[in-house]
């Protein structure tokens, strides 16, 4: 079955209900640094939120899909979730000690990415951390479909992705307290036969 043949709910939950490996690593990173109040833009149906909540970290989410929010509630996520697009941030004036956004950044165009990174940085407290995961050029989808711009492809109808490498990370995050970036292969935990996708974890600290 192709991606576009999946039902809406199947697309929403296609990664399963287990937390992504990068979310688990971020949870450990945040706990080691006493980060207790975080913003999750693109919280989705809550699979990554739960690993933070279960470890005593307060979560506020942003999600464009009302169906995904309803699924998050059914999945036991009772955190505050703003219903809207990350392109409309901020939704409140609160500052957070951490921001985590998984597999969202690369779905935005250049202008949207620039605004999103700035908005996340603006909602960090001093010495707060923000961590993004974004698909890398090593992912199997890189170069597939229609090329829209440098490293930016419509890999299938309606699905546009920007693919990162170390140079573009420095360009886009260099002024936002970039600490490091590292590779992580994210498995699809519900479909063991699918190959993992190579992501880059990008860590920044607000000075």
Structural class: alpha/beta
- Poorly predicted regions are 1-13
Shape: globular
As laid out across the biggest beta sheet, the strand order is 3-2-1-4-5-10-9
Short description:
By secondary structure, the protein is of the alpha/beta class. The protein contains 6 helices and 10 strands.
Description:
- There is one protein chain.
- This protein has about 210 residues and is of the alpha/beta class.
- About 25% of the residues lie in helices and about 30% in strands.
- Strands 3-2-1-4-5-10-9 form a seven-stranded mixed sheet, sandwiched between helices. Strands 6-7-8 form a three-stranded antiparallel sheet, with no helix packed on it.
- Helix 5 links the parallel strand 4 and strand 5.
- About 35% of the residues are buried.
- The N terminus is likely disordered.
Give structural attributes.
single chain, 207 residues, alpha/beta, seven-stranded mixed beta sheet, three-stranded antiparallel beta sheet, 10 strands, 25% helix, globular, disordered N terminus
Topology:
Blueprint: H1 8-12, H2 21-32, E1 37-41, H3 49-53, E2 58-63, H4 66-74, E3 80-83, E4 96-102, H5 110-122, E5 124-135, E6 146-149, E7 152-156, E8 159-162, H6 166-173, E9 178-186, E10 197-205
Parallel strand pairs: 1-2, 1-4, 2-3, 4-5
Antiparallel strand pairs: 5-10, 6-7, 7-8, 9-10
């Amino acid at each position: 079955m192709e991606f576009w043949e999946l039902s809406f709910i199947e697309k929403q939950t296609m990664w399963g209900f287990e937390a992504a490996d990068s979310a688990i690593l971020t949870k450990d990173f945040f706990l080691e640094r006493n980060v207790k109040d975080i913003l999750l833009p693109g919280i989705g149906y809550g699979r990554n939120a739960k690993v933070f909540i279960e470890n005593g970290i307060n979560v506020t989410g942003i999600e464009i899909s009302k169906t995904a929010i309803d699924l998050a509630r059914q999945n036991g996520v009772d955190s505050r979730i703003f219903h809207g697009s990350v392109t409309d941030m901020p939704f409140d004036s609160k500052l957070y000690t951490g921001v985590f956004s998984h597999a969202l950044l690369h779905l935005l165009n250049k202008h949207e990415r620039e605004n999103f990174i700035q908005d996340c940085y603006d909602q960090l407290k001093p010495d707060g951390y923000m961590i993004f995961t974004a698909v890398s050029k090593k992912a199997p989808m890189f170069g597939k479909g229609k090329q829209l711009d440098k490293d930016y492809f419509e890999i299938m109808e309606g699905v546009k992705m920007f693919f990162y490498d170390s140079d573009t990370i420095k360009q886009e995050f260099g002024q936002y307290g970039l600490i490091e970036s590292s590779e992580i292969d994210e498995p699809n935990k519900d479909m063991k036969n699918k190959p993992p996708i190579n992501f880059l974890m990008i860590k920044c600290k607000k000075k």
